[in-house]
Amino acid sequence: MTNLGATPRLGKGVKTAYDQTRDSHVVLFPEGVLVLNETAAEVVGLCDGRTTVAQIAARLGERFDGVVADDVAELVTRLVARRVVEIDG
Q1: Per-residue pLDDT tens over the stretch 49-64
Q2: DSSP summary character for residue 25
Q3: How far apart are CA 85 and CA 89, in angstroms?
Q4: C-alpha angle with apex 56: 51 to 57, nearest 5 degrees?
Q5: How many CB atoms lie within 10 A of CB 32?
Q6: For the whole model, what pTM was predicted?
Q7: Is 18 left (phi over 0), alpha (psi -120 to 50) or beta?
Q8: Does residue 26 contact residue 17 with C-beta atoms inside 8 Å?
Q9: What's CA 19's distance to the chain center, in Å?
């Protein structure tokens, strides 16, 4: 699992967009398209290479109930595995 002190950023060639047809946020990356739920879209939006996973979790906690830092770290880990996000730290 990704360290809470890691600083995720979007990978090379990755873009975020809102898909009107799907009525949801998506991540466009060389291998395909990933449809995101609202929380995942917030996480990806905060992957700026400056904000740590712990800070991302704290910000989400201000907007959503029941945010668990380890769940955010697990999501980041899955995004890294899909090559959507890269991490430092």
Answers
A1: 999 999 999 999 999 9
A2: E
A3: 13
A4: 150
A5: 10
A6: 0.91
A7: beta
A8: yes
A9: 17
